[in-house]
Amino acid sequence: MTILDIASPLITIAQRTRQAASKLALLSTEAKNQAIAAIAQALESARDEICRANIADCETAAADGIPKPLYKRLQLDEHKLRDAIAGVRDVGKLADPVGQVQIHRELDTGLVLKRITCPLGVLGIIFEARPEAAIQIVSLAIKSGNGVILKGGKEAVRSCEAIVKAIKQGLSQTAVNPDVVQLLTTREETLELLKLDKYVDLIIPRGSNSFVRFVQENTRIPVLGHADGICHLYIDKVADINKAVSITVDAKAQYPAVCNAIETLLVHQSIAAEFLPKVAEVLEERHVELRGDQRTLAILPQIKTATATDWATEYSDFILSIKIVDSIEDAIAHINEYGSRHTDAIVTEDLTTAETFIGLVNSANIFHNCSTRFADGFRYGFGAEVGISTQQMPPRGPVGLEGLVTYKYQMTGDGHIVATYTGANAKSFTHQDLV
Amino acid sequence: MTILDIASPLITIAQRTRQAASKLALLSTEAKNQAIAAIAQALESARDEICRANIADCETAAADGIPKPLYKRLQLDEHKLRDAIAGVRDVGKLADPVGQVQIHRELDTGLVLKRITCPLGVLGIIFEARPEAAIQIVSLAIKSGNGVILKGGKEAVRSCEAIVKAIKQGLSQTAVNPDVVQLLTTREETLELLKLDKYVDLIIPRGSNSFVRFVQENTRIPVLGHADGICHLYIDKVADINKAVSITVDAKAQYPAVCNAIETLLVHQSIAAEFLPKVAEVLEERHVELRGDQRTLAILPQIKTATATDWATEYSDFILSIKIVDSIEDAIAHINEYGSRHTDAIVTEDLTTAETFIGLVNSANIFHNCSTRFADGFRYGFGAEVGISTQQMPPRGPVGLEGLVTYKYQMTGDGHIVATYTGANAKSFTHQDLV
User: Fold this and answer.
1) For residues A184 and A206, is the Cβ–Cβ distance under 8 A?
2) What is the pTM (predicted TM-score) of this model?
């Protein structure tokens, strides 16, 4: 089946996905949850097959000499697979984002307006090495009533095929047509997918910054996600030094490869002489390379010089640039100039200063006296995260299932016409919200 | 002041707007309402000046021989101006869309997350002839805490300048910096504005379909609005004939120039012989030109033939295309193929059929037994409408003030770090919603 899908032109695949998705959109929560349970069951039954496919992928990748971090991401052992299947069952437990009544209003007697959430339609998901991402994405797509066209990394092709085969097998015994899930395997298909704005409603790219930027610049389909994550921590003049040190270390060194880790530390000049030596000591113990501006170097002469490029760089590594600023205004100006509107935090004991920071920094997540690393859908209690958006329009920040639905205005009347409410003897609307 | 703004490069104007808007974003509802009241007052004081400027615009336009409908839209007499000023005062009465707490959740003791609405930043509004549009837009922008860069039609340049001058004068006595409102007057500036994605957060084009499409295709800034509005009315086999006739006439002929008027009537074959002659009689009385497919012509031999082009045409005029379909599935397929995802309606007494239609038609507004002409922010009770969006992602349908705001995730801790919630002895989150 999968082979056949790939052989047919992409547009046919997209149409078939769309058609199957339009049926999925109308299914009850129970029917969708049954499909999700069937997927979990089918993946369990296909465990050996999936692991064998992954070993074959890993062998090829090793022979091709792919970098070690990528190799680790590619590996899908029994432990990772069990976690991914547990994740599918968790999605089954989440609240259904479809069918929520956002507005219920009588416009006049017998003329009732409802705004109700509904699926977007078809999602296009392009992800890199990690094959278990396909498992999570498919369960989220089905829970939200959407079809999904997956394009995995070429290193993971056998793993993805085994996973999607199992998922389709699981779905075949449910109310959900297996056509709602499709797998693409070639790079050419990715480019074609980005052009299908008639059939695909949202693209979610999961990969490197440059890859996400490429996607954003090469499609008219809305893109959910973010390219850069240049996050800042500002240590105010009235910061608690202990909190400041501990938050800096957590925000930089707890897991530097992720988007919500900080890249630049901004320090108020009046606290710098006391704070910087203390934080530098702990950061150096954690093997973090420090790079400072001239004023920082005067306090920490042992560290490297930060150049203008540093302020605009997402290291995603054990490197931290440090700049001393004269005021909170300078800190905010630096963040709004170099930041990615992702996550920025302030450490201060002054509530007014914290409010100024929260009010004037133009980012999706703005924190006071806690680590930037909290910017995450699971930590926010969303249950599942489809991505973190740094765009200005909603959905922004960590996006859960609600990012995969839209809404329709539905109105029922009894022959109501606009002429009744227009002109000299116009009837008035009642506009009464119904509970 | 206006002259000076225009003389300086656009990027400087945009930066200045952005700076003024970031202060406006923090103002209280009361301060914004005072500014809106001051605008209304200043426009009243400048009434003569504005009307004189408009007369000059109209004289030039008449000399240039602009079409009569455009001329009528350009005219801003004392009556229209009074209505527009009343509209400003109405915006003052609307609920403030900024500062609404959408999520308030304790993640753990002392670690509290809030999602709060905030302004988008700077709006770019490009509108055609009607100069009073500037008045409405500025009041909506200020209510929602946004800066606004206006570009009016070249025919209305004197009127717009007089209006913006009065608005800035009004603002100069308030907490709102007059720099939040800017007026551009040349076509070259429009093109440049569309490129300023670093400074402008949302573009709202108000004009012809081709103009909106041009804007959508030539900017990376999000665009709120719609190009086409090809709306359908489907008369089901179990429709009430009286309702069907009355809704058809209202949806087509009550005001055909607007986007929510229908262009195509789809009729179930089993009701066509009874319904079509009745509706044709009334539509012809209202001077509506009818164009039908072959099966329609068999019933209404007097009308013109509809070609394939008709199904894809927004007439915006007293013309209606008619097609007979064999089933609701055929009707839905036609709508999803040719429609604009704007507004489509069904007339039927069968509730199940209505539900199928609402479930499977993929439009922003889907109506049952009422006219498509109800798709409108004022009629929905939003108080003000910034546009109707036909995109799939929210905001879609009629968009009120809520379309001019976004949100920030704000979190306050007391030194909380992620390391506490990770690894072998990970603490659990409480994820408790606070009321």
Assistant:
1) no
2) 0.92
The percent helix, strand, coil of chain B (3-state, each to 5) is: 45, 20, 30
* B248-265: pLDDT as tens digits: 999 999 999 899 999 999
Same domain, B202 and B235: no
Q: Is B105 helix (H, G, I), strand (E, B) or coil?
A: strand
User: Each residue of A287-319: pLDDT tens digit?
Assistant: 999 999 999 999 999 999 999 999 999 999 999
Query: For residue A243, what is the nearest residue in chain B, using CA coordinates?
Result: B415
- Closest alpha carbon within chain B to A104: B380
Mutate to test the interface with B, among A370, A376, A399, A410 (most CBs of B within 10 A): A370
Cβ-defined contact of A416 to B374 (cutoff 8 Å): yes
> Are A250 and B107 inside 8 Å of each other by CB?
no
**What is the number of CB-based contacts under 8 A between chain A and chain B?**
211
* Tokens encoding A230: 């240049």
Q: Which domain holds residue A127?
A: 2-217
- Does the structure show a pLDDT above 60 at B219? yes
Confidence of residue B80 (pLDDT cuts 50, 70, 90): very high
**Residue from the list B406, B412, B417 with its beta carbon closest to the beta carbon of A246:** B417
Examine residue B348 and state whether it is found in any structural domain, yes or no.
yes
Number of domains, chain B? 2
pLDDT(A219) > 50: yes
d(CA B61, CA B131): 13
For all residues of chain A together, what is the average pLDDT?
94
Query: By mean pLDDT, which of A53-57, B210-214, B321-325 is the weakest?
Result: B210-214
Q: Which amino acid is at A434?
A: L
- Predicted pLDDT of residue A435: 72
Q: A325 and A261 share a domain?
A: yes
Query: Does residue B86 sit at the A interface (CB-CB below 8 Å)?
Result: no
Residues B198 and B244 in one domain: no
What pairing do the DSSP bridges indicate for beta strands A147-151 and A181-184? Answer: parallel
Residues A175 and A235 in one domain: no
| Domain containing residue A195: CATH number | 3.40.605.10
Q: Tell which B residues from 215 to 244 touch A, by Cβ distance under 8 Å.
A: 222, 240, 242-243
Asked if residue B146 lies in contact with residue B24, where contact means CB atoms within 8 angstroms, the answer is yes
> Which residues of chain B make contact with A196, given a CB cutoff of 8 A?
none
**pLDDT number for residue B180:** 98
Partners of residue B222 in chain A, C-beta under 8 Å: 391-393
Which backbone phi and psi does B214 adopt, to 5 degrees? Answer: -60, -45
Residue B226 pLDDT: 86
